[in-house]
Amino acid sequence: MTSHQGRVFKRCGCRDENSGRALGARCPKLRRQGGAFNPRHGDWGYQLELPRTSEGKRRQARRAGLESQEQAWEALDHLKALLDLAQGEGDVEVQIADLIQNALKARTCFPSVEEVRKRLGTGADVRKEALTVGAYLKAWLAAKPDLAEGTRTSYAGHIRKYLIPYLGQVRLDRLKSSQVEAMFESIEANNERILEARESEDAKVRASVRGQRVVSLSTKHRIRATLRSALSDAVRSPEEPVNVNVASHARLPSCPRKRPLVWTPGRVERWEKDGTIPGEVMVWTPEQTRTFLEHSRKYVWLHPLFHLIAVKGLRRGEAVGLPWAHTRLTDGEADIRTQVVQLSWTTLTSTPKSEAGQRTITLDADTVKVLRAWKKFQNQARLKAGPEWVDSGLVFTRQDGSGWLPSHVSDWFTRIARAAGLPPITLHGLRHGAASMALAAGTDVKVVSAELGHSTTHFTQDTYQSVFPDVAKAAAEATAALLRGASAPAGAGGLVPVR
Q1: How far is CA 473 from the centre of its chain?
Q2: Entry pTM
Q3: Selecting from 1.10.150.130, 3.30.70.120, 2.30.29.30, 3.40.640.10, what CATH number does the domain 133-249 have?
């Protein structure tokens, strides 16, 4: 093992009165009369001869301004221990010496012996600058060209809005789960600030948070999922000094799946009285859905779209992006192979996320009738428009033949529902309602799951199953009839059990 020559010294900034030259270590004030160093004068430093550069030039590791002799010896011993890791291998010694020299120039801390040992064990160049979380996340996202555009936008938003502002400057190999938890605590503190400002009587305070959104628990879970995915790749990479995925260990309150609630007469009455909405996911009864569809007939260019979603439970992007080429009215089928994703004010067409999402749905006779009438109307509008018609090939279009912007469809849905005097639900609530009606009608859950594009029947039951009041009443009467020894009433068969 090479013996690395170094020394510890003490010096000051005093100068010779005659020549003006710095006295350095020759200053008589550095020592007391007995020869001991004067603790009140001068600073400590160290100097270590480093292996020559790859070009053969001599160099030293030298630093002054330390508070004590012990501190200087500790630093010197640390540098020697780093160089000893090379075990006499010339190229590795040069790398470690470069690392030391770069840290001195940048005035940054030297890496620990354990960090350098790990990098040597993986065959990595120890001179590589320590990577921050922010730099890693940017490089990680850029290195994933095959991501769906919607997923990429979601990841980029989490990285830009939360992960980099809160964790970006932390070294990747020093990131702790406690720091991830602290990020979520800060986000929640900002949530409270926004809510308090919204309730303030001061208009300026309210204006200060205008446009700022409260980050929901489900969004926090998605932020953590983004970080967890990125760190999983770092753990698998031999180039990154990461052994543990700290995002997996960061604690967050559980986020139970939001179960839909039906707008029963009692809930509607309370909503009409004080505006109370009892749940985050609300579903109309079949009667309320019929009222909406009847009212939507006034909006010729939207009624068929809303009818298909209400009956078959298509997602918004799937309905907006459905082409005539994938729709076979004679067979009563439609292939769901595309969806329109909205990113800000632009849209792009992609395939559904999962394999189960790419499916063929069966159209009932009433829906086929609605679509046939719509296709005839659309063809007449196309002939009337002539060259002004945009040949998008989509089933549902605006007056010029171009496709709908998904957000505009949602806006129109809310507007029509309000005009019909119905309690509020989201457009996605029609999908919940379609699933609930199918299950309540006794349709096998496997069929409903396949039609909705779910990968498991458990997800369908757990998320989309709502019990309508009349169905629950029939189930209750059927149970009571069995206890009385009577036969179950007609129509009680095929009910989906309440779990």
Answers
A1: 42
A2: 0.62
A3: 1.10.150.130
